[in-house]
Model the fold of this input.
Amino acid sequence: VARTKIAPPKSRRSAPVGLERQVLRILVAHPSLAVMMTSAMMDDAAKIAPDGAEMLRQLVLIAQPMGEQANFAALAENLRASSADFDSLIAEIAEQTESDIDVVAMELAGALRQIRSQVLKLEMEQLAQRGLREAPDVVDDMRGVEVAAVGQALDVAHGRVAAESGDGLPP
Done:
């Protein structure tokens, strides 16, 4: 197997923390789970990680091509060849006992959901802050809303919405 040496980063990366570290540890211990990582998940991790999830991206780029047959020893060898950033994580995982892959897969799925939740919360906070400074054009966007069940256009912006009961008679 030919090894490609990836150039080390110019400066030492900041150590991953929290959920990013949890995902890194899981994927180093069980590289076959890297197939669960999508580009959207990577983008979410980059939004909350101190290093923009660069270590996670590098790990996934190395682990995913290894496929479902990937194992810790082969991944550790590839990671050591690519960067010294993973050495402490590899040593830490090498000392641990083997864990059940099904349990670890659920743990990874939970961590990825938490990352997504944090990103959504961050985006909502940003929208709320922006909304306090700028008047949104929501009302203008609502003009002429087509209601499929009734089959008529409603002019919501000017309050011309008549209440009707299900039989079409006024309430």
Observations:
- The two ends are 76 Å apart (CA to CA).
- The CA atoms of residues 28 and 72 lie 6 Å apart.
- The longest helix spans residues 101-133.
- The longest strand covers residues 143-147.
